[in-house]
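Quick one, T. Sequence first:
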Amino acid sequence: RISWSNRPPVSAVMDTDADGKIVTATDPGERAKLTVMSAETRRTEMKNVCKHCHTPDYINAFYSQYDDFVVLYNEKFAKPGQAIMKALGEQELITKTQFDEEIEWTWFYLWHHEGRRARHGASMMAPDYAHWHGMYEVAERFYMQLIPQARELIEHAKASGQPEKAAAVEAVVEEIMSRPEHKWGPGLKPKTDTPSAEPASAAAAAAAPSADITAAAGTTTPSSPADASGASADDSRESAGESEPESETKPGEPKDSPPNS
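Structure tokens:
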């Protein structure tokens, strides 16, 4: 009744052959010929079980959310990670021996540890495992370890006289990081090709988001907190003839003298 296999690095649709193995053929005709039980059939059987306790809307909403989660993991992290590791191996920037280099452990933890936990958390409706112990750690492992380690290997290759191999792997990494889903990474780099703004301009730019939010809400904010509270209170005191009390001093002691220690 399982429509996804969450065991491998990239989750696979559970179309199975006569031996119960996942069909890996990509050609539609060949795939249809080999498939004995499709993922759709498996899901239909599972939904029939779910209907004993849950409404159709509840069931369909769960599967929609689950599918989106698995596709997000596959497309944003797992397939790119596989592509990077494949490029490193093909260009011999890592050895054929498994787990003798740090990046191989990083990749293993990403898909086998955090990645499996995230996918199984989503399948069992466990949000803490799906997010904080899952996709959050997948993203952290990908951006903070896998990508920097791959770039470090690229730089080592350049320094050791392997520019072509380094360029081949670098092209894979940078193509991945230029995709819309990873655009925030390059976006964090400081812009050096534009002149720095004047302090006043910078302050105005910083205030712009607040002004936009206020406009969208249909309200008007004062130009400063003092306009809203402090200034009006001071004005009312002055109009009433009130003044700020002077600090008390002892006879013979100058004003504003520091307190005795």
